[in-house]
Amino acid sequence: MPLSRFLQQCILSVEKWSKQYSHNDKVFIDSPTIKLQHWTAGYHWAKTNKEISSTAIGEIVEYYCPVGDESKVSEEQIKNVKELRWNTFDQFKKRASSVWIVSLPTVNEKWKEGKCTCPYFLKKYMCKHVIGLAIRLKLAKPQQLQKMYRLAKSAEEED
């Protein structure tokens, strides 16, 4: 394609997109898609015997979740993570991943807007900790998981 034709096509595309935005014709996804595997992982995480502490900060509640096989989090671990207390890289590795901090809005219907400090959330904008806490707090129902499982199974059978 010649350069002049390419530039003309670019201008037409940008003009079309601008009109879509100005008329609100362009649809944006503003909440993450929660797949069956995320629901399953969240459900299993919610059923563990982990002790979770919390602190309300305005319209957000921060939940402090233990990592891996740990069952509870100490106040010292929370303080280390929140205040970024480390002097060496080895301290950083140990302390930064010793507690996952999950922040959920106090408005129950907005739990999907929650955030987590775990690496998976930073990539996918949703993780088992957010979903698991929503299940524990009865903001999300595990029945949704069962329905989704049945729908996924029936879709597999049709293929």
**Spatial arrangement of strands, main beta sheet:** 1-2-3-4
Q: Tell me, what's the shape?
A: extended
The fraction of residues assigned to DSSP E strands is 5-15%
Number of domains: 2
User: Mind telling me the C-alpha Rg?
Assistant: 21 Å
Task: Summarize the main sheet.
Answer: 4 strands, antiparallel
Q: Cα distance, first to last residue? A: 40 Å
Order of helices and strands: HHEEHHEEHHH
Residue share in helix: 40-55%
Derived structural class: alpha+beta
**Low confidence ranges:** none
Describe the structure.
The chain is α+β, with helices and mostly antiparallel strands. It has two domains: 27 residues; 128 residues, no CATH class. The chain has a four-stranded antiparallel β-sheet, with helices on both faces. Strand 1 and strand 2 form a beta hairpin. Helix 2 crosses helix 6 and helix 2 runs antiparallel to helix 7. The longest helix has 20 residues.
Quick summary of this structure?
The chain is α+β, with helices and mostly antiparallel strands.
Feature tags:
single chain, 159 residues, alpha+beta, 2 domains, four-stranded antiparallel beta sheet, 7 helices, 50% helix
Outline the secondary-structure elements:
Elements: H1 3-22, H2 36-46, E1 53-57, E2 60-66, H3 75-82, H4 89-96, E3 99-105, E4 115-116, H5 119-124, H6 128-136, H7 142-158
Antiparallel strand pairs: 1-2, 2-3, 3-4
